[in-house]
Amino acid sequence: MIIEIVIAIVCLAGGVFTGKFFFSKVNKNIEEDAKRKADDILKNAEISAENLKKDRMLEAKENFLRLRAEFEEDTQNKKGILVENEQKLREKERQLAQQQEQQRQADQELQSQKQSLQSKEENYRKKLEDVERKRVEAEAMLANQISQLEKIAGLSADEARQQIMDALKAEAESKASSLVKQAIEEAKLTATKEAKKVVIETIQRTAAENAIENCVSVFNIESDDVKGKIIGREGRNIRALEAATGVEFIVDDTPEAIIISGFDPVRREIARLSLHRLVQDGRIHPARIEEVVNKTKKNIEDEIIEIGEKTVIDLGIHGLHPELIKMIGRMRFRSSYGQNLLQHSREVAKLCATMAAELGLNAKLAKRAGLLHDIGKVWHEEPELPHALLGMELAQKYKEHPEVCNAIGAHHDEIEMTSMISPIIQVCDAISGSRPGARREMMESYMKRLRDLEALATSFDGVQKCYAIQAGRELRIMVDSENVSDEKASNLSFDISQKIEKEMQYPGQIKVTVIREMRAVNFAK
């Protein structure tokens, strides 16, 4: 037992010694390895620091060289600018010196001219004194001679001059009186005969139609089924047509026909063409009606220009202003006492050309004045002047010949006639208007009353459009919904009716209808 214990102790001591030796060896190896690694790290660090130092020095050197180069370049540029400024300064000094030299020379020339003018002025003054002295001497000599003649003749100079003038005047009056008397007698014998001859030949050589303008147009339809589409549900299509065109559509028992009534031929034509397009298209509703009416109005404007151009080409008139050509086209849709204004103006132009040619005057100028004599009747605004004076102002505005302007203004004796063309225009206008069947007085007064009725309504604020329908028995007024409320629309209807009662004369009664429509339009995109 003791032996085993001793053995165990020996073994334990040997193990402890062996472990201590082993761990000592291992620690020594680890320490050597760590030391070696530390030396490597130090060497690498020294190498890296040396390389970094070299890089920084190299970079610093490059920056120094770059900054030095930039400094030298900037210095060189500034030197160049300085040299250039010095050159410019020298150039300006040179120019200033030249200007001073030129100014000095100019002053010398001015001084020389001044001295020359003073010398000339002195010479002129001396000559004037000589002329004045000679004039006084001549007057004294003339007075002496006249005094001697008066003594010899026994008459003064004024008395002798008066006797000679009286003798010459009596002789001239005697001869002139005999010549005037002879001319008057010959004129009485031939003037009436020649005037009748010219007028008759002029009328015979001009053919004219006897046509009277009316106030209705008839629109033919294929079947009465189309009438229902035109009327629309509860009459909304008819109301939309009347509101857009300003005329009245009469749909009665007349088979296959709709009557379009209105005093303005332009509106009737727009209404007729619009209705024709709507029937052909088949889509008849308020929105489509407004679209078609607007397109038709544009087409009518183009047609007006085309009619004006065709008229001046047919008559051989050239160089008219485009605005005058447009007014001539509008004559096609205007009547005067029931007589179509364009037809009347063409007729007057032809009569004037023929009569001017018979009298040996300028036929082209007379034809031009005849065509334009009623141009004041188609001015788009309500005129404050008579149409003859307004037409003269328009012709002057568009650079027409002065004789043409005078003929237009004088054809109703508003101004004095200054050329031979003016009475020709007046005579031919009377010939065209006075022939049987040419005019109807009631038509003109009727249309004037309707135009005055519309003008009265449009004078109120907020009124957009106004149409007289039902032969003037109804006034239909469209107002701006944004500026006129429902209450104001009611008051507007009352105010217009009161003004009509005070200022106009009319048979029966007039219905004043104010229409205010509110629309909201948006687009889905």
TrEMBL record:
SUPFAM superfamilies: Eukaryotic type KH-domain (KH-domain type I) (SSF54791), HD-domain/PDEase-like (SSF109604). It comes from the Bacteria. The keyword Membrane applies. InterPro entries: HD/PDEase_dom, HD_domain, HDIG_dom, KH_dom, KH_dom_type_1, KH_dom_type_1_sf, Ribonuclease_Y, RNase_Y_N. Residues 96-118 have a biased composition (Low complexity). Residues 119-128 have a biased composition (Basic and acidic residues). Its EC number is 3.1.-.-. Keywords: Cell membrane, Endonuclease, Hydrolase, Membrane, Nuclease, RNA-binding. Residues 92-128 are annotated as: Disordered. Coiled coil: none annotated. Residues 341-434 form the HD domain. Endoribonuclease that initiates mRNA decay. Belongs to the RNase Y family. This is Ribonuclease Y. It comes from Aquirufa aurantiipilula. The gene is rny.
